[in-house]
Amino acid sequence: MPADSPQTPAEKSPGILLICKDLMLASGIHAAARQAGLVVKQVSRFHTDLFAGNAPATGNSGSNNETTSPGETMRFGICIVDLAIMPLPLSEIAAWCQMRSISAVAFGSHVAVDLLNAAREAGFAQVIPNSQLNRKIPEWLSMAQQCTLD
Fold it and tell me: Would you list the DSSP string of the chain?
């Protein structure tokens, strides 16, 4: 990109892929991310075109964690998943993230022990109950920033 070419916020900032329907939970993540200079791409359901076999945006292999939609480039540092929107293919999400060096983390109800364990078994780096979400957001934002600096 030429030096004088303007960049969009998504190109300047690392991104967070947020898979969440809950507007209250998502609003806290959006606000914290905005303060940290991060961009959030939120989806409310699983998109097979986003996860299944998505080609790297740069057209090469290796540690690429960019995903594109028409007219959009975003570099994800972390993928945050709300387990309340099951069914989600947790193993596929974890594998997609791992292939792109994106940290995959999840949160869910403390009474959904089987679901929390399924996310851990699928390979998510961290899985927490909803009650710990506000305490974990700063750490997750830091993870997003660190992943994109590599």
Answer: --TTS---HHHHSEEEEEE---HHHHHHHHHHHHHTT-EEEEESS--HHHHTTPPPTTS--SS--EEEETTEEEEEEEEEEEGGG----HHHHHHHHHHTT-EEEEEE-TT-HHHHHHHHHHT-SEEEEGGGHHHHHHHHHHHHHHHHH-
Tokens of 34: 């905005």
pTM comes to 0.75
CA 20 – CA 68 distance, rounded (Å)? 19
Backbone phi, psi, residue 78, to 5°:
-155, 150
With contact defined as beta carbons under 8 Å apart, do 107 and 22 qualify? no
pLDDT digits (tens, 9 = 90+) for 21-69: 888 889 989 999 999 888 898 887 666 555 443 333 333 333 333 444 4
88 and 81 in contact (C-beta within 8 Å)?
A: yes
- Residue 105: count of CB within 10 angstroms of its CB: 21
Q: How far apart are CA 28 and CA 141, in angstroms?
A: 12
Closest CA to 16 of 150, 126, 146: 146
Query: What's the full length of the chain, in residues?
Result: 150
